[in-house]
Amino acid sequence: MKTNKSTASKSTELTDAPESKVSTIKSQIIMQPDNSINSTIPVNPVNSDNAVNSTNPTNTDNLFDNEQTATDTTEQPKQQRVGKQQRKLDYAEFKATYLTPAKLMKRHQVNIEDSVWAKLERIARILGDRDTTVGSYINAVLLEHLNLYADDIEIWRKL
Hints:
This protein is mainly α. It has helices spanning 10-16, 27-30, 70-73, 84-98, 114-127, 134-148, 150-157. The protein is extended.
């Protein structure tokens, strides 16, 4: 004999059911997450309700441009706040490395843009000591750069 079953979904059937028919014996089973939405196993994606949200290779792009992917929503770790004492230490290290006055022997002229010169002059004048010049600042920066890339420059020279 056929029974007449309504076309309502299971959740509607449960809510419309009288209290005597609703079972709450295993509540921990009810509260477990259902991982079928983002399943990595394709289950007939043509007719499946999960085809839109599946992670199989045929459906990895966003359907809408304004949707965020899971990697976009992950929070970046918070940067630690830099205190005043740490800033002073960083400034002292920068000043000792790059802004120490130096007397340049056997100098050479180098042409740079005016806007770059203005920035370098401002840094040397404001952050440096009285005898700090743009030339000594440029010399220190370039020397640090050459020391940092010395091994790479040697490898590239041999290419």
